[in-house]
Design brief:
The complex is a heterotrimer. Chain A is mainly alpha-helical. Chain A has 17 helices and 4 strands. Classes of the chains: A mainly alpha, B alpha/beta, C mainly alpha.
Chain lengths: 381, 266, 385
Amino acid sequence: MSALFASIPFAIIATGALVGVAASLLGTFLILRGDAMLTDAIGHSIVLGIVLVWLATGQASGPVQIVGAAVTGLATVVATEALARTRRMGGDAAIGLVFPALFSIGVLLLNLYARDVHIDAHTVLLGEIGFVWLDVVPVFGVDVPDALLWMAVVTAANLAFVVTLYKELKIATFDRGLAAALGFAPGLLGYALLGLTSATAVAAFDSVGVVLFLAFAILPPAAAYLLTDRLALILAYAAGFSVAASVLGYLLAVAWDVSIGGTMALVAAAILAASFLASPRYGLVAQEVRRRGQVEANENRALTVHLFQHERGPEAGEENVLSALRTHLRWGDAKARAVVARCLDARLVERSGQQLLLTNAGRATAREILEPAGRRAGAGG
Amino acid sequence: MTLSDAVHEPDLAVHVEDLTVAYHAKPVLWDVDLDVPPGVMAAIVGPNGAGKSTLIQAIMGLVRPTAGHVFVHGRPYAEQRHRVGYVPQRTSVDWDFPTTVADVVTMGLYGRLGWLRRPGRAERRQADAALEQVGMLEYRDRQIAQLSGGQQQRTFLARALVQDADVYFLDEPMAGVDATSEQAILSVLRDLRDRGRTVVVVHHDLQTVAATFDWVLLLNVRAIAQGPVSEVYTAENLQSAYGGQIALLGQLELGSQHDTHEGHTS
Amino acid sequence: METLASLAGDYTVRTVAAGALLLGVTSGALGAFAVLRKQSLLGDVLSHAALPGVALGFLIAGGRSFAAVLAGALVTGVAAALTMLLLTRRSRLKTDAALGIALGSFFAAGVVLLSYVQGRAGAGQAGLETFLFGQAAATLRSDVWLMAGISIVAIGLVLAAWKEFSAVTFDPVFAASIGLPVAILDATMTAMIALAVVLGLQMVGVVLMSAMVVAPAVAARQWTNRLGIMVLLSALFGAVGGVAGALISASGRGLATGPLIVLALTAIAGFSLAFAPNRGLVSAALLRALERRSLADRRVLGALEALALQHDDPGYPSEQGMLDAYLGTASGWRLRRLRQHGWVRRVRHRPEEGIHWRLTEAGARRARDARSEERADMRGEGGNR
């Protein structure tokens, strides 16, 4: 067992995976709430919290830092909301005003008072997961990396939060009004969520830095969100993607000799890209296939309706021919022919010399569209 | 001879043929034909989701139709932009935007001014004239955030008026507007009609159609019926358009029920 | 700390100040549009997304080259903006998620490239680090010339297409309906905001550049309701904050430039938010307090007037206790203040009676005026503030 923890790759991969899992457990709800950029703001501003706590207590990690971060993060959120409520600026401008200021104070304090190798601006910003194995703490006689330990604690806390308050979080995210009416205090839940996010960010800053934290929090849930509608599955997929990104990211980073945390995040981005393109339900490719199908179905319908509307009148001879489709439906030659061909194939339409006639199936299709409005009661458009 | 060389139905202010707009699986507008004669005040009515706003947007080229084409006074819409004025629904503007009433109205002239030219005295006069017409001249230097809903709407009307168009499209201009502003807007629209312009309004209030408009289109994804209010605004047509959604049919003032609508209040 | 005079004489300082000035003006002016378009966070994404571009510029140029870095940053910035657009348009992800995704992925790429550049020993690698938080002192004369050129182009474009940009920003639907090429104008504006962002990467750094596009504009908005003035003020504030921060940083105490500029700009924004006339929060609170006082005064005068009318005696002396009961609150101190204005007068009374007050002539007039003012208000525009 101790051999496992002494293994550097394991320590690094495990830490990365835990950062991903802990972050994406919360990140799922954050993106569903529309708070992704607020997460970015929190990530930046907790630098101030980290520096203040470090100056006050000399601790660069551990429970004091975690509490300090939660406080700073919440303070950021509260200040941002208060500014937005004054209505003197937009909500987005409020975010863009508060966190850079707090972050700047933090960086300046670092510049002035903390020329320490352990806690400089670079590390805080970018993390150095490669060094997590340096600080170890004995746990039940086994030497466990400090960062890994605290990351595990935070992950467990986040998991407990999500599992115990699952249905409350679910309602609060999708229907605030209902949640409030049911007494679930969506506001309070929201703050708890953001507080835990801040805590997770600080636990992770050592390994991946505060800005990359955003990537770990947002990318896996986003990829999962494009795959499924079920909340539980989104959480599960996100966790899975985080672990995969961690393993793959480490291997690639070692091969290329580049930043490990950065590569892990990049792999998560690649997973998102893959999901965006290939998701069977929501992916770009699937959308395109569906769209083509619908365009074609619409064109077929347009043809049947056009024929139906003119077939009984005296103008049928003029209207229900190929050339008329060009002028009246504004279809180019090729398109008109293609649609007619499709409809002929589908037995919606048959030829009689130059004229196009509806079959019974074609007439039924047209009637479907043209039937009285009663069936449309309440339908949106 | 291409389509744009042909003059198509020049006697109609607006001629729409086979207009179809379909997003995904749902048709929003299907095979809509619309023939609006010039010099009328026309209403477009229909239930929610009937595609009324989409019809206007498709006519104005703001939404891409799946099929069909639009002619304004005989020529394709794209060539007649300058003859068409538009008052969109009020909702999407940032009211805290730093701009005055006069500025907003002047924006109506930007298309005509073209690149690089600055609005000058002539433009200022035109803007003031439009503001005068809607009764907002005294507010010309007011921030738009300080206006009431009706005043905002009148400002947007002025923005369209300043274009001196032949055809005006308005999307629910009187929804949520106080009585004074509603009267002011109606009087401007009537004045336009009396001067021979064509006014097409997406209207939200079935009760006031017969008293206010001369011409109506009943729309529910398809064109159900269109024509003079007295002929077309009947219980039967409304039933067709609204299906079971119409509760107070008995209490509506219908086209077939009276001979004149002069001086009639609703 | 050196005196201002010796600072002004210093070559580096003059260069830094010139660069900061150009940067402040450009990012302030363009930032005004970004903020009005509700794209404040786009600046955040663009600046973080510039990191990979900066690293690429380094790699391609073989070292530190301002032009290469700018070009690289612009390319990756625009790529990030396009990514965002793609994500919002073609998937169910919302704007905030798309912003975060673009920011996170591009910044991650930047971190990886940064480590790659640093892995290859070279003189340039230390220089690359300074792009994180900015280093004003690294500005060269040639850099300033390039910045000037870019600034002139960007600002020139804004001035030339001023009315088109304003129309599209305010109401894109209407702008499209009068034939303005909304998509092109949109894209151009985004590109120019990207340009403003990359302009400041050397001085302010990747992480904080977004604030230079947001803070001056927010500050400027509080002082005016005219778009033109807002853009001008935004440029001015950007310049002031930029120069102040840059100079302090260049005075050589090892403080990164970015944070100093951001704090200067935030201070300006904070001051504007609090104290600008009309919109300022403090000003507005003061105005409200004054209004409340004026309202209370009117009520007291009104009470005196009513009692005088009741007794058909314009000089009717009302007893203070009675006034208190009539108004439902202690009115003594208010009456004393009204006396200072000359609107009421104490009336002689016998020692065992309470204090009596009456309206003076001026006070009677004031009460009448107040009444007609109120009626006009209620009839009036119904405007909402």
